[in-house]
Amino acid sequence: MTAAGGRPAAAQPGPATPGDSTAPDAWHLLKTARELTEPELRKAVDRLAEPVRSVAGYHFGWSDERGRPADGGGGKGVRAALVLAAAQALGAAAEEAVAPAAAVELVHNFSVVHDDLMDGDRVRRGRRTAWSLFGPTQAVLTGDALLAVAVDTLAHRFPRRSAEAVQELSGALLALVAGQGADLAFETRADVGLEECLDMAAGKTASLLAASCALGALAAGAGAERVDALRQFGRHLGLAFQLVDDLLGVWGDTAVTGKPVGADLRSRKKSLPVVAALRSGTPAGDRLAALYLRTDPLSDAEIRTATRLIEEAGGRRWAQEEAERQRTAALNRLATADATPAGAHALTALADLVTRREL
């Protein structure tokens, strides 16, 4: 059996849960990363002026909409965990990489705050988004402030190779902005190709994961070849991450994703499974295209129909196979980084966690 695009079928990525063989290591890495980076994140946010400081605190899940202490709502901290794990994999102590780990989390959250506004998303991680609660203006300012303190944290709290580190992060930011711009442009185009959709994902998502791994390598004092090996590991992992995220956007459980069912389809997002289906040349793909070309809102029944058509056209299968292919490519690059066995195991565990989430 073949998938959309003609690639042979591969094993479907399975879920990663705390009970899996590699997952306990990954969940421990995430927990450790949060414990190490949260104090640095709070220091950065505390430097911001009100009301931006309170909006940022809400977004991170540290407070509720009235500024009262809260526990929850924040992300997993995957990017910070990758920075710390990459540094340790090349022989550094995790503490040496805390500043770049915090910096990439600040950049990620800058992009999330702005992304929610641009996409009109009102719910993230089971809570109202910052813009929907505090207004678009405060969301824009908060995102800008998080970006500013991210660069400042990297420049002043990471004196070792700070120039290289800022250059690495700046390159990722330029790619991220280009990818986000392409994602928004795709919404009004009917001719989006699969390769350009993958290029968009490489910028919007994979660029920051690539930078996270490269920054960890820089914290360990690694040479250019090992830094690039981990950068490419992160890039392929980021593509796999986005593919799985797009799958969850169509077939995920709201209790797991924190987003309403069918939100991506309702806004006619050109996510990777959707584009694979639209470009499949199948009757189901043609019917999906007709739904996507309409200008009036899709009903709940039509959302269910679109979900079924994506699967019938091979979009789901292709995305699952491509996620597995990108994961394998990531691990192949990791094998060239001369990481410690324990470090390679830790990075593999994180790769499994983010690419084999419950669908």
What does this structure look like?
There is one protein chain. The chain is an all-alpha fold and 359 residues long. It has helices spanning 23-46, 52-59, 78-89, 98-119, 130-134, 136-156, 162-186, 194-219, 224-251, 254-257, 263-266, 272-278, 283-293, 300-312, 315-334, 341-355; strands spanning 123-124, 127-128. It has one domain (23-252, 332-355): Farnesyl Diphosphate Synthase, CATH 1.10.600.10. It is built from 16 helices and two strands. A two-stranded antiparallel sheet has the order 1-2. A hairpin with a 2-residue loop joins strand 1 (123-124) and strand 2. Helix 8 (194-219) crosses helix 9 (224-251). It starts with 22 loop residues before the first helix and ends with a helix. The relative contact order is 0.15.
Primary descriptors:
359 residues; mainly alpha; 16 helices; 2 strands
List the helices and strands and how they pair.
Layout: H1 23-46, H2 52-59, H3 78-89, H4 98-119, E1 123-124, E2 127-128, H5 130-134, H6 136-156, H7 162-186, H8 194-219, H9 224-251, H10 254-257, H11 263-266, H12 272-278, H13 283-293, H14 300-312, H15 315-334, H16 341-355
Antiparallel strand pairs: 1-2
Helix pairs in contact: 1-3, 1-4, 1-16, 2-6, 3-4, 3-8, 3-16, 4-6, 4-7, 4-8, 6-7, 7-8, 8-9, 9-15, 12-14, 12-15, 13-14, 15-16
